[in-house]
Amino acid sequence: MKSNILILLLILTSLFNCRTKRVSNFYIDSFAGKDLLGKEIEFRDLNFPRVAINVYSPTCIPCFKEIPTLNYLREEMLKSHLGEFFMVVDPYSIVDSSENKSFEEVYPQAVQLMQEEVIKRNITLPVIIMRPPFKVTPGGGLITGTPETLLLKTNPLILYYNFIGSISEKESIEAIQNDLKVKFFKRTVGGI
Length: 192
Hints:
single chain, Glutaredoxin
């Protein structure tokens, strides 16, 4: 009888220790960078239920065509208290001759390019210049190109959806609101 109770206790103890633990996936827990004012941002430390990040490049036509949609979706996320929507940039993909330079050497040039983009394209999302290991890697890796929008849950930081390509290139608010990909994004981010 005592051996049966001991076996039962061992089984119950092992069941409690076998539950799935929530841990960050891929390498997104290392996503970090600086905003255009020089403030350090570590995505794993953000205190939002959801985080959306749009990977942007100034030379990418679909990237700047979807800016009205990104601005609209950010407003909706903030209004619904679901989280924040960031625009992120791989500085090594937008700054010429940057391959062998440190992040601190490339960052000022990336900031200048993106400050011009913010004004020229009316970008309202906070812009983050990303540090390695974040990298746009066409044909391989987590981020394969631009535009790409990643949806993340926090605590811990977990990638749960990746939109490849623009969400919508519509221009008017009414057209954006009625776009099926926008509706899908809103449901996926949390039902806004």
